[in-house]
Amino acid sequence: MAKKKLVVLSGAGISAESGIATFRDAKGLWEGHDVMEVASPQGWRKNPELVLDFYNQRRKNAHSVQPNTGHKILAELEQDFDVRIITQNVDDLHERAGSSNVIHLHGKLFESRSTLDPKLIYPIEGWQLNLGDKCERGSQLRPNIVWFGEAVPMMEQAMAETMCADIFLVVGTSLVVYPAAGLVDLVPDDTPILVVDPNLPYLRPRPHLHLFEEKASTGMYKVKALLQQKYL
């Protein structure tokens, strides 16, 4: 019998528990920087060295942290479900925890791409990407991150996965960043939705809605138990 498809939308909250700060926190990742300085095409054109350094520091931080219990339970769920993770996070903690199907809506921290041809993408060994690092066509490399004002190339695939979910799980996101937050509206009406977050977002009342008002590392134990009890 085919496994039920469990589609997961994850956000900054799950990575924050591993020590990756979020720019929406009071002591956020982007403190001291206007968002548009370090995460927009305009900022890149104005000061590419600042942008490169900013993401170098993010990479250095990501190297020093480990997946937490929330990440690990999501990976374990692949034993019983066809798990597809749609993440707003640019780190690789889901993959390092063992998840095998991860869609990165906002790009990947450990990849660079050509400023001339966006199809030319390269892994970043270590944590540094510097001015003078160029693609095979001689163009400066930039972080392979979706910046403010740019299209979200993986959105179409994420929408397709969401619309055929048997179960939809939201973990570690307040559902305020679009277009990702709009995925919840595409979940079929009869599909169960489970939400894990210390600050639960508003969702319209619907059947089979399960809310866990806690952080991912503790809430995912309860999610796993519920999934195995009700949906296997």
Please render the helix and strand layout as text:
Blueprint: E1 5-10, H1 12-16, H2 35-38, H3 41-46, H4 48-63, H5 69-76, E2 82-87, H6 93-97, E3 102-104, E4 107-114, E5 121-123, E6 141-145, H7 155-163, E7 167-171, E8 193-196, E9 209-212, H8 216-230
Parallel strand pairs: 1-2, 1-7, 2-3, 7-8, 8-9
Antiparallel strand pairs: 4-5, 4-6
Helix pairs in contact: 5-8
Tell me what you see in this structure:
The chain is an alpha/beta fold and 232 residues long. It has eight helices and nine strands. It is 29% helix and 19% strand. The strands form two sheets. Strands 3-2-1-7-8-9 form a six-stranded parallel sheet, with helices on both faces. It is elongated, with a radius of gyration of 18 Å.
In N-to-C order, the SSE pattern is: EHHHHHEHEEEEHEEEH
Report the helical percentage: 25-40%
Structural class by secondary-structure content: alpha/beta
Number of strands: 9
Q: Low-confidence segments, ≥5 residues, pLDDT <50?
A: 25-29
Kindly provide the radius of gyration, computed on alpha-carbon positions and rounded to a whole number of angstroms: 18 Å
Q: Biggest sheet, strands in spatial order?
A: 3-2-1-7-8-9
The quaternary organization reads as: single chain
Number of helices: 8
Mean pLDDT: 92
Shape: elongated
Please give the alpha-carbon distance between the first and last residues: 11 Å
